[in-house]
Specification:
Shape: globular
Distance between the termini: 59 Å
Number of strands: 0
Number of helices: 13
Largest sheet: none
Mean pLDDT: 80
Radius of gyration: 18 Å
């Protein structure tokens, strides 16, 4: 197996399928937004500490810890960029469901999803560029692939920001319609989106099979560190068990689907990047559901009321 080959090969995913994937991600975000109301944002002002801790873990600590992992493991350039891309993305599409399963603070999870999604419009391109340029091999790829941060910001806004605003608006003005649509759309669109990721892997199954183990181990370690980042910072700031669960899950469940789309759009499906994002998109569902089930069955010890 030629590991360096991943830095040169590209995954095959034609323009038509890519647009379908774009639409699926937008619908997933729209479905999630149907559960978000303007009142959820009041959490930021009423209880700012958990929200600020969640944002700190998501957009500052996770990218920094990802850089440390990359520095120690020294993966090839394309894989390192894939890790930076995933770490730069906001929370994943199923974090609210898993938080509810785990007995966490669902309202906080929803607020973090909304706030992180809006911040991602700017923070995802900036974090990718900043951390990717600090690791010499990935910096070389970034120099070869001329990326306009403004173009990436526009695409992230169309994929995440606009559906979020439309969903919140529908929930604000026609809550009954939003509630009925949300029950169906959120799960159907997510299933469709996951199916498209599997389709992308199927079209590139030879590459997938050859490099599966090599990519998978680092995704497992990266995902574990993401969960630990959210858990550790929550404990450091002495948050409640419910808030700790929410922030842990929000940090460990990344929107790798967004990362995959950005990779196909701006990096032409660069092998190592695409495989990292695709593997993450599958694995974080497994790890998140396992963690959510364990926490749901065996909750934290009850805290003393102040």
């Amino acid at each position: 197996m030629n590991e360096n080959l991943l830095d040169t090969i590209t995954l095959n995913f034609d323009a038509e399928n890519q647009w379908v994937l774009n639409g699926a991600l937008a619908f997933v975000m729209f479905g999630i937004a149907l559960d978000i109301s303007l009142g959820d944002f009041k959490t930021l002002f009423q209880r700012p500490k958990p929200v600020l801790v969640g944002v700190l873990g998501q957009f500052v600590l996770l990218p920094a810890i990802t850089f440390l992992l990359v520095y120690i493991a020294s993966p090839m350039a394309s894989m390192a960029l894939g890790m930076f891309m995933v770490a730069a993305c906001p929370g994943g599409n199923v974090s609210n469901f898993i938080t509810h399963l785990a007995g966490g603070n669902t309202a906080l999870s929803i607020s973090l999803t909304a706030i992180a999604t809006m911040l991602a419009v700017v923070m995802t391109p900036l974090n990718l560029q900043f951390w990717g340029s600090l690791y010499a091999p990935s910096a070389g790829v970034l120099k070869q692939v001329v990326i306009s941060p403004w173009e990436m910001i526009q695409l992230v806004f169309l994929l995440l920001g606009l559906p979020l605003l439309l969903g919140i608006g529908l929930n604000q003005w026609w809550p009954q319609i939003a509630q009925k649509m949300g029950k169906i759309l959120k799960f159907v669109s997510l299933l469709f989106f996951v199916s498209l990721i599997f389709l992308a892997l199927y079209h590139n199954r030879d590459i997938f099979i050859e490099y599966a183990f090599y990519v998978f181990w680092i995704v497992l370690l990266h995902n574990f560190l993401a969960f630990m980042t959210g858990f550790s910072i929550s404990k450091l700031f002495k948050l409640s068990s419910k808030d700790t669960k929410s922030i842990t899950i929000e940090t460990g469940i990344q929107n790798s689907g967004l990362g995959l789309l950005l990779i196909f759009t701006f990096f032409d499906g660069l092998g190592g990047m695409a495989l990292i994002a695709a593997f993450w998109g599958i694995w974080h569902l497994v790890s998140g559901l396992i963690l959510g089930t364990i926490w749901g069955v065996k909750p934290f010890r009850k805290e003393k009321l102040a």
